[in-house]
Amino acid sequence: MSCKPTPRFEAVLAPDDRWMIFDLIDGLPVEMGGQVLIGLDRRAALDLERRLNRGGYQSDSAAVSSGRDRPY
After folding, report:
1. DSSP assignment, residue 63?
2. For residue 39, is it within any domain?
3. How far apart are CA 29 and CA 37, in angstroms?
4. Which positions of the chain have pLDDT values less than 50?
5. Which domain of life does this protein belong to (predicted)?
6. Residue 60: predicted pLDDT
């Protein structure tokens, strides 16, 4: 019996009817390349969600939560 890992990232419909990628561990919108991933169309959001959860991209917020950006 194999268990599927819980996804870290989720595409969420914002109140302004645009999509964003949310980091379920950090509890914050995802950043990539210094850009917060808010204001996406549905297709782009779902594609990014799938890729991030597969490990196809490294988000800036994932780097922050791992502590790699800390000087100490």
Report:
1. H
2. yes
3. 7
4. 64-72
5. Bacteria
6. 72
Residue 70 inside a domain? The answer is no
Contacts of 61 (CB under 8 A, 6+ apart): 23, 26, 28, 29, 30, 31
User: Is 33 contained in some domain?
Assistant: yes
Per the CB < 8 A criterion, the answer to whether 52 and 59 are in contact is yes
What is the helix (H) or strand (E) element at residue 4, kind and residue range? none
The per-residue DSSP string of 5-46 comes to PPPSEEEEE-TTS-EEEEETTTTEE-EETTEE-EEE-HHHHH
Q: pTM above 0.85?
A: no
Residue 67: per-residue pLDDT: 45
The confidence score (pLDDT) of residue 27 equals 93
37 belongs to a structural domain: yes
- Taking the C-alpha atoms of 30, 14, 40 and 62 in order, what is their torsion angle to the nearest 10 degrees? 10
